Amino acid sequence: MSKKFLTYVLVCFLCSYLGAQAFKVVIDPGHGGKFAGASGVKTHVPEKKLTLILARRLAKELKKHGINVCLTRESDVALDDDLLTDLHKRAAMGDDADIFVSLHLNASDSKKTQGFEVYVPYSESGMPIESYRGASYIHYHLAHTVKPHWSGTLGNRNDIDGGIRQAKFNVIAHTKGRAAVLLELEYLSNPSGEKRIRRGAYQKRLISSIAKAILEYRDARQ
Predict the structure, then answer these.
(1) Which of 2, 37, 52, 109 is the most buried (most CB within 10 A)?
(2) Residue 151's beta-bridge partner residues?
(3) Rounded to whole angstroms, how far apart are CA atoms 144 and 21?
(4) How many other C-beta atoms lie within 10 A of the C-beta of residue 216?
(5) How many Cβ atoms are within 10 Å of 48's Cβ, its own excluded?
(6) CATH classification at residue 166
(7) Is the CB of residue 73 less than 8 Å from the CB of residue 103?
(8) Is 40 exposed, middle or buried (0-12, 13-18, 19+ CB in 10 A)?
(9) How many other CB atoms sit within 10 Å of the CB of residue 100?
(10) pTM
(11) Strand positions, DSSP E, the chain
(12) Cβ(36)–Cβ(47) below 8 Å
């Protein structure tokens, strides 16, 4: 076996290894500072506090697997006094990311509304394929983690799983990274939902499922 061939094999191995190590995830804890987001219907806990807790847990879990992780904020701060500029600055932090994940909690006028949704950027030219791929992994794992609630006359409507949707949310629409998704993980306007998302054990389950999805997405690209 020639030295030239061995060198080639070594270079290929190193490129593959470094490529895996270089996989970058930018996690955006939704809101922050004066932009508090939704609030719990009973405890009035702000969305910004819970998303930061969830983001830190997700970052910690991903780092265990050698993922390069960056948070758009590490504390209770806004990136700018202007909301639109704040969102654009968050999006810009994901420009070099393999996947940008914005974490949010929802609210509704009805206390009965519950569940989760996974969003990808809206595009007039069709579904953004890479974002949809990342969203598909996350949706799959969330759907198998969050207990479904079936309703409707025929019992065939899942009131928990909001599916994968397209939206013009600035924070994912303006990032230039490879993939971008926004997760609405629970409804703080629902008393049961608020109670669930504040429990450490439930947070752990959600974060574990999202981390598994991101790792599978990374592995599928290699």
Answers:
(1) 52
(2) 157
(3) 28
(4) 16
(5) 24
(6) 3.40.630.40
(7) no
(8) buried
(9) 31
(10) 0.88
(11) 24-29, 68-71, 99-106, 116-121, 150-151, 157-158, 161-167, 180-187
(12) yes
SS3 label, residue 76: coil
Q: In angstroms, rounded to a whole number, what is the distance separating the alpha carbons of residues 3 and 141?
A: 46
Q: Which residue has the higher pLDDT, 182 or 221?
A: 182
Cα–Cα distance measured from residue 45 to residue 193, given in angstroms and rounded to the nearest whole number: 12
Examine residue 84 and state whether it is found in any structural domain, yes or no.
yes
Q: Which pLDDT band holds residue 150 (cuts at 50, 70, 90)?
A: low
Instruction: Let me know if residue 77 belongs to a domain.
Output: yes
Helices (H) and strands (E) in the chain, counts: 7, 8
Structure-derived torsion over alpha carbons of residues 60, 64, 65, 67, reported in degrees to the nearest 10: 40
Q: 15 pLDDT exceeds 90? A: no
Domain that holds residue 76: 22-221
Please give the helix or strand (H or E) that residue 99 lies within, else none: strand 99-106
Asked whether residue 11 is assigned to any structural domain, the reply reads no
Q: How far is CA 39 from CA 53, 77, 116, 202, in A?
A: 15, 17, 16, 18
Q: What is the pLDDT of residues 74-132, one digit of tens each?
A: 999 999 999 999 999 999 999 999 999 999 999 999 999 999 999 999 988 878 999 99
Number of structural domains, the chain? 1
pLDDT of 12 higher than 70: no
Classified as helix, coil or strand, 152 is coil
